[in-house]
Please model this.
Amino acid sequence: MRPFALNLKNDKKMEGTSMPRIGDKAPDFEALTTTGPLKFSDYIKGGWAILFSHPADFTPVCTTELSGFAQEKKWFAEHNTKLIGESIDSIHSHVAWVQNVREKTGVYMDFPIIADIDMKVANLYGMLHENASNTSAVRAVFFIDPKGIIRLIMYYPLNVGRNMDEIKRVLEAMQIADANPGTAMPLNWRKGDKVILSPPRTLKDLDARLGEKNIELVDFYLAKKELA
Model:
């Protein structure tokens, strides 16, 4: 018997059922990671989290990706966001890989990486796509907010690495939108750009919008504003 078996906490999301979707509660689990045993709901409590999977340890694209997350660790901490990786590899493989990358590049991937050799987390989060591979997780990224809700999901194929700038951009966009109700982010938005105001829902709101100052009014339904 394995000394620390992964224990699923969400029976509705077991293998063979639908994948988690945007707006769902993030499925909880317990697992062995490179930082020790971890209960996911406890780990992410009180902040944002990014859960990301990679196909395999000791592979070149995955090494660039997880190194990229490690190099941005301070930025994510400043944005109240915890990182947690996942792949269908043993804890021994993970630890050896982390040390190999540290020795060869000086980058220390010291965030938790889940040892998911029984594929339970991969199945729980829909990271196994049969037409891509039955034994390797695709490059999935789940953004989870402080309420434990999945807010954004990204999937990349096995042979294309993720875009760290986009990961940071959308995290910042969601956090700023949450802090400013009634706003949304336009195409290619970056921090400091104008945000879009929600369109009016009543005639009274429409008249207020037409008389509003300090906004860029393209039309009554499309108005932009700088945040203070």
